[in-house]
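Async update (no meeting this week)

Hi team, since we skipped the sync, here's where things stand on the single-chain job. The sequence we agreed to prioritize is pasted below, unchanged from the tracker. I ran it this morning and attached the output directly underneath so nobody has to dig for it. Comments welcome in thread, and please keep replies under the output.
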Amino acid sequence: MRVAAGIVLAILSIGANAQPRGDRCQAQIPGSLSKALAAAFPGYRTPLEFDNAPEDMKANLSQGGNGCLGVAIADFTGEGKKDYLLGLTSVKGVKGMVVIALPRKGGWNFQKITSWAEDTRYRQYVQVVTPGRYERTKGLSAPLAPGEKQSIDCPNWGALVGAVQQTGIVYCYDHGRWSHVWVLD
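Output:
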């Protein structure tokens, strides 16, 4: 009887931590990346499409998106490889974290970036922006934060992060460094 109860508890535990099959966010993340993220950020999990508010998912779908606001893929470094921008979700609570995952020989290199939407994971989004020039929003009067620029030129694809309809920060990788500029406030 105890053995049977132990097996049932083990199965329920596995099911509680399993990611849903068919999730549009999970479908974009390679297994090796999921495992590496779990090891590097044990208090967080990879994003699910339902981590975001239903109205934000619906708006994304109506604009031609796939409903997943937690994964974006592009070549951010200009190395000709798929890089991943991920809005991780805390295992406990509602916090989020944004990570850029760069493939490296034998594994992944992670760069944690600030989205200023970490306390509102259900509103947090990640997105890719085209190479080009990005200017700081005119509405900001605060001094530039460390790493922030008044404007940046992205030679490669850029990473846009923030809270839906509230903030947007573009991160660009250039000459081995990440810089950012606030584009929405």
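Quick observations from my side:
Residues 2-17 form the longest helix (16 residues).
The mean pLDDT is 84.
Reply here if anything looks off.
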